[in-house]
């Protein structure tokens, strides 16, 4: 049982709208779960909290951790913001504005015809909201909807519109949800921020949680300015801060803190567990160096299993490359066709594949997450039988079996892109790995974006080269060294470092792969030269 610190307890006890900023490993997930448990105590079974995480993986993790402490999450919603917009607002209330179709297919914007894309592009402009006088702006969206099509990227804008102008939607949301928690608020978009503020005006307790220094999604118009606005603005959000990192060795905290604030005060102590290594060669040589040192590192740091060791990279290419060079058993997390789709149907299929390959997943999770409200006991029985088949059936019948479950769930379609994705999982070992349970003998390899929210005893941080981290820009006519979004690159470096509990190695090499695909001489990342880092690392 964790003994909460004073700053954690203050955040837990505060009963109203708040913004909780927190450094890595400071227990924000722990605090959020405790607050959700308190909120749920007074609620009826048809009520719940909205718990929004940035990725499906993070939301699964939050739900899993919550279920350990909270017996019954009642009618709470755990998921990504897009899923919330679609499931709770668009699917329930769009028919108040346009003719309800027999079935609805969710597509991506780039699947629209080029002329439709041109006509509808303005709906995606950053900062655009639909005012009462521009209601016609959604005419084409309504027509598509009544023909059974909805564009995923429009879910935030349309949700804000529905929530603002539909009293029925407002009544439904207010009756069902008593509080909303949004994690990783530093990666919020404009509309998500507007909806969050609107919900708080409806009397729903609103809690934003984040860390501006862990903002790494600016390329997708996600921006820490909204978190900062809540924290510093003149508004009804009470600011709280968690400042103690409970995860990382203090020397890792010191190094990471100095990256962001070169003048910050250090935690006292002589023990240093941040290392830098420059390996002659490239990933082949780095891999054999990691292979040869692994057992001694495990012994020195009392690390029982390889899966407590992570290799983090900037790019997916590096994930596959280093994985293929290593001799030690490893698990490389690569993007697959299904995970790139990001639609509701692909999400159910992904969960069904997790269920097929990993006994830690249950049929009940799928029923809880995807079956419609009001499903009868008899329908649940049939659904459970069909889901069980997905685990038992042979590869040849898998697609038919998944189609069977989707049909029973309603609202979801199995299209040729999904069939391609399922075939990729069946045929490519590296892709199937994404679905198998973690084997404790496997070193974990992933890009830094995927490592967010995770923790490992030991981290090898790769790709620390000039041109790679930080990236560079080459404006015409300029030979100056110009970094491309330096702060985002620095945040990425910070996130990678703070995944390590006991020990982190910052790895470079004398060569890297250039843009033409050949090995070229490499220079170390400029981040090594930042002020304030002297004496905070050892060389290997
Ligand atoms: N008061 C505490 N005392 C000891 N350990 C704690 C305390 N609070 C949290 N922890 C531990 O610190 C680790 C990090 O906590 P948690 O995952 O909640 O942090 P976080 O802020 O969500 O992390 P991040 O944002 O970096 O992913 C966990 O192993 C958790 O059990």
UniProtKB/TrEMBL annotation:
It is an enzyme of class 5 (isomerase). InterPro entries: DNA_helicase_UvrD-like_C, DNA_helicase_UvrD/REP, P-loop_NTPase, UvrD-like_ATP-bd. ATP binds at residues 22-29. The keyword Nucleotide-binding applies. Residues 1-249 form the UvrD-like helicase ATP-binding domain. It catalyses: Couples ATP hydrolysis with the unwinding of duplex DNA by translocating in the 3'-5' direction; ATP + H2O = ADP + phosphate + H(+). One of its GO terms (molecular function) is helicase activity. Its EC number is 5.6.2.4. Keywords: ATP-binding, Helicase, Hydrolase, Isomerase, Nucleotide-binding. It comes from the Bacteria. The keyword Cytoplasm does not apply. PANTHER family: ATP-DEPENDENT DNA HELICASE SRS2, UVRD / RECB / PCRA DNA HELICASE FAMILY MEMBER. This is DNA 3'-5' helicase. It comes from Cedecea colo.
């Amino acid at each position: 049982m964790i003994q909460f610190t004073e700053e954690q307890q203050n955040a837990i006890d505060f009963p109203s709208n708040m913004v909780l900023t927190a450094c890595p490993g400071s227990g924000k997930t722990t605090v959020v779960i405790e607050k959700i448990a308190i909120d749920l105590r007074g609620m009826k079974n048809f009520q719940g909290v909205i718990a929004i995480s940035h990725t499906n993986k993070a939301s699964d993790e939050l739900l899993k951790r919550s279920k350990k402490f909270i017996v019954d999450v009642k009618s709470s919603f755990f998921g990504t913001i897009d899923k919330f917009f679609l499931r709770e607002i668009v699917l329930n209330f769009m028919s108040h504005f346009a003719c309800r179709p027999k079935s609805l297919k969710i597509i991506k914007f780039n699947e629209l015809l080029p002329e439709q894309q041109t006509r509808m592009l303005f709906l995606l402009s950053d900062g655009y909201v639909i005012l009462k006088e521009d209601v016609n702006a959604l005419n084409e969206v309504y027509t598509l909807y009544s023909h059974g099509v909805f564009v995923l990227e429009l879910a935030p804008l349309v949700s804000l519109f529905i929530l603002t102008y539909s009293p029925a939607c407002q009544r439904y949301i207010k009756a069902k949800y008593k509080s909303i928690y949004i994690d990783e608020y530093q990666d919020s978009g404009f509309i998500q921020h507007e909806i969050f503020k609107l919900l708080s005006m409806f009397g729903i307790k609103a809690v934003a949680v984040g860390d501006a220094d862990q903002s790494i999604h600016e390329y997708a118009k996600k921006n820490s300015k909204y978190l900062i606005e809540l924290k510093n603005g003149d508004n009804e959000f009470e600011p709280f801060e968690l400042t103690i990192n409970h995860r990382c060795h203090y020397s890792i905290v010191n190094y990471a803190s100095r990256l962001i604030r070169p003048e910050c005060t250090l935690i006292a102590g002589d023990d240093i567990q941040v290392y830098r290594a420059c390996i002659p060669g490239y990933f082949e040589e780095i891999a054999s160096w990691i292979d040869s040192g692994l057992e001694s590192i495990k012994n020195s740091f009392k690390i029982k299993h390889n899966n407590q060791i992570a290799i983090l990279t900037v790019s997916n290419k590096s994930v596959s490359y280093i994985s293929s060079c290593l001799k030690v058993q490893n698990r490389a997390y690569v993007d697959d066709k299904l995970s790139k789709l990001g639609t509701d149907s692909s999400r159910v299929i992904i969960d069904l594949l997790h269920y097929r390959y990993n006994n830690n997943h249950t049929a009940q999770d799928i029923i809880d997450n995807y079956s419609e409200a009001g499903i009868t006991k008899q329908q649940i029985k049939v659904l459970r039988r069909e889901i069980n088949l997905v685990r038992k059936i042979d590869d040849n019948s898998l697609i038919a079996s998944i189609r069977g479950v989707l049909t029973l769930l309603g609202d979801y379609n199995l299209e040729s892109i999904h069939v391609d994705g399922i075939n990729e999982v069946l045929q490519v070992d590296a892709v199937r790995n994404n679905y198998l349970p973690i084997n404790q003998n496997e070193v974990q390899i992933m890009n830094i974006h995927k490592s967010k929210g995770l923790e490992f005893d030991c981290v090898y941080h790769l790709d620390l080269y000039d041109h790679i981290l930080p990236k560079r820009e080459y404006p015409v006519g300029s030979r100056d060294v110009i970094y491309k979004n330096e702060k985002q690159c620095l945040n990425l470096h910070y996130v990678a470092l703070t995944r390590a509990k006991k020990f982190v190695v910052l790895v470079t090499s004398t060569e890297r792969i250039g843009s033409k695909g050949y090995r070229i001489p490499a220079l170390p990342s400029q981040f090594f030269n930042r002020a304030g880092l002297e004496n905070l690392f050892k060389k290997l």
